[in-house]
Amino acid sequence: MQNFFGNLKQKLARMLYGVYGQDELSKELSTFGLICLIISLFPYLKIFYIIGFVCVVWAFFRTFSKNHARRMREREAYLKFTAKPRAAIRLQKRRFADRKTHDYYKCTRCKTYNRIPKGHGKIIITCPKCKNQFEAE
Ligand SMILES: [Zn+2]
């Protein structure tokens, strides 16, 4: 019996050797696919079943693929395409985490957010990016 599991372990290790593994695209595809599959349980929303199934299968395909160069190109394209929403989400997370100690002010010229400690009253902020000065409370 122990020999059987030992052989199985070796076979699995040999099979998984060199697979691409998971990256951001695979993880988010499988999450999105599972959400679609759950939505498809409601009546008249069967189209989500197909979308969810395709996403989950695609995520599995990417994870077990051995064509690393192609998977990395797909990942790069995905990260480039979703860079702005990712940055917006990251900023909102930081703002929420710092909500008791810091305020965020948008620069009036370059629209960059500046993180300022709370409790200083009326202050003049100098933007570190464009050196523009603006007033904030
Ligand atoms: Zn600025």
Secondary-structure blueprint of this entry?
Blueprint: H1 2-16, H2 24-39, H3 47-64, H4 68-81, H5 83-97, E1 102-106, E2 113-117, E3 123-126, E4 133-136
Helix pairs in contact: 2-3
Bound molecules: zinc ion (ZN).
Zinc ion binds next to loops.
Your description of this structure?
With about 140 residues, the chain is of the alpha+beta class. The protein folds into 2 domains: about 1-80, no CATH class; about 95-135, no CATH class. About 55% of the residues lie in helices and about 15% in strands. It is built from 5 helices and 4 strands; from the N terminus they run H-H-H-H-H-E-E-E-E. The strands form 2 sheets. It has a two-stranded antiparallel ribbon with strand order 1-2. Strands 3-4 form a two-stranded antiparallel sheet. Helix 2 (about 25-40) packs antiparallel against helix 3 (about 45-65). The longest helix has 18 residues, at about 45-65. The protein starts with a helix and ends with a strand. The structure holds zinc ion (ZN). The site of zinc ion (ZN) has 8 residues, from loops.
Structural shape: elongated
- What is the H/E order? HHHHHEEEE
Helicity level? 55-70%
| Main beta-sheet strand count, sense and barrel state | 2 strands, antiparallel
Number of strands: 4
Quick structural overview:
The chain is an alpha+beta fold and 137 residues long.
Features:
two-stranded antiparallel sheet, binds zinc ion, 5 helices, 137 residues, alpha+beta
